[in-house]
Write a structure and sequence with these properties.
It contains 6 helices and no strands. It has about 130 residues and is mainly α. The longest helix is centred in the last third of the chain and has 23 residues. The N and C termini lie far apart (about 45 Å).
Length: about 130
Amino acid sequence: MPIGPGFDDPEYDNYDPAWRHQDTPFRRWLHERLTAAGSDCSADIAASYAPANRYHGLNAIDLDDLATLTDTTGAAVQAAHKADLDEWAREQQLRDHPDLAVLDADLDRIRHRSGARHPASRRWRE
């Protein structure tokens, strides 16, 4: 069974396009190592493997393939994989913190009540 958010979690979606751009330590590590190894597809390979790393893990074949592609060892790939999962666990602990959940709900309520838009939204900038 894959690890990661549950089906009712807004982050869960096997087809989430955000995964193609999600910035994670493993994705950065992969991109750097693939680029250094001369790969023309480093961004695409990193975009494919980074979500799999978090949600499905890496099997022995993935580790060997990535070690070959990045010109590193399976142990180096596994260390980057573990470091990413450790950071993800810390992110989840922060998100699950009750005070932050209450603050997030309060900010959402204020935003909806005031009709304000998030500064990053397209409409805000227009």
